[in-house]
Amino acid sequence: MTSVILTDGGMGQELVRRSKSEPTPLWSARVLIDEPGLVRDLHAEFIRAGARVITINTYSATPERLAREGAEELFQPLQKRGIELARQACEQAGDAAIAGCLSPLFGSYAPALTTSFEEALATYRRIVAEQADGVDLFLCETMASADEARAAVTAASESGKPVWVSWTLADHGTPRLRSGETIAAASSALGDLPVAARLLNCCRPEAITAALPELAALGGPVGAYANGFTSVEALKHGGTVDVLHARHDLDPETYATQAIGWVEAGAGIVGGCCEVGPDHIAALRDRLVQAGHQISGVPNA
């Protein structure tokens, strides 16, 4: 029997769908203040669906994004609220590890939009300082370049908490980060930084399937959680997520089939990203159990 850690699915798109407000460039951050119950309840739904790890809903609450929208003063309140709502969901729905969120500072899928390594590291340290006391581990997710991931992992590792790093891949062609770098090169750039798991996320399931053997060959725990977008090309810097569209051929059972394939290829952590909701996670939980896998929590978290 193989132990598999099941994570949650995508928060942002699901919250936009449920919210009464129109999407903004801050994606799901504003809903933490305006409609906190939606965030808490969605976290709880993922836990009830089988998730043993939930990530706080602060993906778009980076200092850079908030400054761009003239809302810098919201940085600390949003970080605090994100942790509070995740904790409330655990109290309401059951035990789950809470992952801190270190996301791309300027926007997803855009490795060219960056600062120097030193500036990025300073910003990630600010985020870690706000989250460290309230989370069980750190997830450096949707990392589109080697340097972006190195800065995030460096800051996260200084907390002493377990660190997962997750790269996002180009959706088509030979497996590469969206920067064009290889997975092996991105992993090598982390040097001796303590990484508890390496993952791939927020790209097409087919891209993850093609890349997972290369990731698994690096050794250590690996995982994957894909998005359900038809394409991410329409999302421009400062744009809103309503320009992106969900695939119609990736229902819960179909997604679960993809993810079971990742487990068979060596993934010990699976879940979902954008457009992957609680029903997808529940279907994946059921398929894991049917296949004889044990759904486990996060070691040392």
What's the CATH architecture name? Alpha-Beta Barrel
Average pLDDT score: 92
The CATH class designation is Alpha Beta
- By secondary-structure content and strand pairing, the structural class works out as alpha/beta
- Low-pLDDT residue intervals, each spanning 5 or more residues: none
Number of strands: 9
Order of helices and strands: EHHHEHHEHEHEHEHEHEHE
Estimate what percentage of residues fall within beta strands: 5-15%
Largest sheet report: 9 strands, parallel
Q: How many domains is the backbone divided into?
A: 1
Q: What is Rg? A: 17 Å
CATH superfamily: Homocysteine-binding-like domain
Read across the widest sheet, the strand sequence of neighbours is 2-3-4-5-6-7-8-1-9
Task: Classify the fold: give the CATH topology.
Answer: TIM Barrel
Shape: globular
Helicity, as a percent range: 40-55%
Could you characterize what this model shows?
The protein has one domain (3-296): Alpha-Beta Barrel (TIM Barrel), CATH 3.20.20. It is built from eleven helices and nine strands. The protein has a nine-stranded parallel β-sheet with strand order 2-3-4-5-6-7-8-1-9. It has helices spanning 12-18, 31-34, 36-49, 63-68, 75-93, 117-131, 146-157, 183-188, 205-216, 252-264, 278-290, and strands at 3-6, 53-55, 97-102, 137-143, 163-167, 197-201, 222-226, 269-272, 294-296. Strand 3, helix 6 (117-131) and strand 4 (137-143) form a beta-alpha-beta unit.
